[in-house]
Specification:
Blueprint lengths: L23 H28 L1
Bound molecules: zinc ion.
Amino acid sequence: MEEKKEKKHVCTVCGKPSEATICHACEEKIRGEALEKKKEVEKAGRTDTGRR
Ligand SMILES: [Zn+2]
């Protein structure tokens, strides 16, 4: 059997075969984490300005 080393696109996050650099599952996960971070920042900013 011949194994050709083809450049297969894999997800850079989970390493699973994906057409995109980041698969949909990881993309959604990253998006969710980013949203959570944004919420935390907004919350922190709000409490900070509220207490001062
Ligand atoms: Zn992935």
